[in-house]
Specification:
The protein has ten helices and 18 strands. It has 364 residues and is α+β, with helices and mostly antiparallel strands. Strand 14 and strand 15 form a beta hairpin. The structure holds adenosine-5'-triphosphate and magnesium ion. Adenosine-5'-triphosphate binds next to helix 1. It is a peripheral membrane protein.
Length: 364
């Protein structure tokens, strides 16, 4: 077991593209770290650098107290699970798991014991003689996991291992991966662009954007206090509503302490339909309902913000605010009619404020 530390890690690809622009974070021994961010933000690049499959342009990667910049992948004591599993098609499940151990010259009884133990944990013991093509997608994914488990590495690295699976299997495997990692308590770094996967799996969440870290924290802290508007709209679905305010608008809403323009944020689940005025300091928005999505236990209401409500009133140029789309998320299936005008309210402590460029969270 080991911790993993990245110190000012950078990657410039041949040709000059800077894919990783100075990343620092630490994954504690036994922690499950999830790297999440949009396509192209550098997640796989970073993971492959930890694995040693990609060189590091500058900075340091440290695994278990040893700088591994110049250590070969095979000597880093890591095991990686990829999105496309990459099983050997002509080998049985057993041999797929045993292959790497044999290559390392491990004794046969030890290989047998490790493969059987992994098969038991993953519940694929009855399939050891089958070829990958005789397995379902979920079963193949388990074999890929098994291949990593038998190595008994210090660190597991996962690159979107569930993205080839259908939605239901994804959820089932997600829960299994978490249980497995708790049980083995092996340090893990897991890459995904799925924010729900990130929220549910992570002990420590690293939100990346364009080669940089936007925020690091526990999933619920990141959800409760996003550091930037990027994080605010990336974590949580539907995303946080973001409404630009001029300096006057910010002052009118949040008092004299803040004197700059900003972006007001409020999550869809923190808005409720109500004709009553909110508690002091709360927010009211007047919306024209444009679309309804009923997903079963809850309903998403899409509306356009109309002049009126207390935001227009605090704008320095009432009526000139663009008609913004607002999403609200309400429990149950009852919803207003399309075209109806409604008022929605949020409590003061559920309001977020960011700098006008979205790069900074402002305490209010
Ligand atoms: N070998 C390479 N040469 C040049 N640029 C590369 C190379 N590999 C990746 N890139 C670029 O580096 C950036 C980061 O790529 P990376 O694969 O790390 O993204 P990612 O976050 O894993 O995305 P995805 O979610 O789509 O897998 C992208 O803009 C990509 O085009
Ligand atoms: Mg990737």
């Amino acid at each position: 077991m080991a911790n993993v530390v990245l110190r000012n890690v950078r990657k410039t690809y041949p040709g000059g593209f800077e894919a990783i622009k100075g990343v620092d974070f630490e994954v504690g021994d036994g922690q499950f770290c999830v790297l999440v961010g949009p396509s192209g933000c550098g997640k796989s690049t970073l993971l492959r650098m930890v694995a040693g499959l990609e060189t590091i342009t500058s900075g340091e990667i440290d695994i278990g107290g040893r700088v591994v910049n110049d250590v070969e992948p095979a000597d880093r004591d890591i095991a990686m699970v990829f999105q496309n599993y990459a099983l050997y098609p002509h080998m049985s499940v057993y041999n797929n798991m045993a292959y790497g151990l044999r290559n390392r010259g491990m004794a046969k009884p030890e290989i047998e014991a490790r493969v059987q133990e992994a098969a038991r944990i993953l519940e694929i013991g009855a399939m050891l003689d089958r070829k990958p093509r005789q397995l379902s997608g979920g079963q193949r994914q388990r074999v890929a996991m098994g291949r990593a488990i038998v190595r008994q590495p210090k660190v597991f690295l996962f690159d979107e291992p569930l993205s080839n699976l259908d939605a239901k299997l994804r959820v089932a495997m997600r829960v299994e991966i978490r249980k497995l990692q708790r049980r083995l308590s092996t340090t893990a770094i897991y890459v995904t662009h799925d924010q729900l996967e990130a929220m549910t799996l992570a002990d420590i969440l690293v939100v990346m954007n364009a080669g940089q870290v936007e925020q690091i924290g526990s999933p619920l802290d990141v959800y409760a206090k996003p550091a930037t508007t990027f994080v605010a709209s990336f974590i949580g679905a539907p995303p946080m509503n973001l409404i630009p305010l001029d300096a006057e608008g910010v002052r009118a809403r949040f008092g004299g302490a803040v004197t700059e323009a900003g972006v007001l944020g409020v999550r869809p689940e923190d808005l409720a339909i109500s004709s009553e005025p909110p508690a002091p300091g709360g927010l009211t928005l007047d919306l024209a309902v444009e679309a309804i999505e009923r997903v079963g236990p809850e309903t998403f209401v899409y509306g356009t913000r109309s002049p009126g409500g207390d935001l227009a009133a605090i704008s320095s140029k009432p009526g000139e605010l663009p008609p913004d789309e607002i999403i609200i998320r309400i429990p149950g299936q009852e919803a207003p009619a399309i075209g109806e005008r409604i008022s929605v309210v949020a409590l003061r402590h559920n309001l977020h404020l960011f700098s006008a460029d979205g790069r900074r969270r402002i305490a209010v």
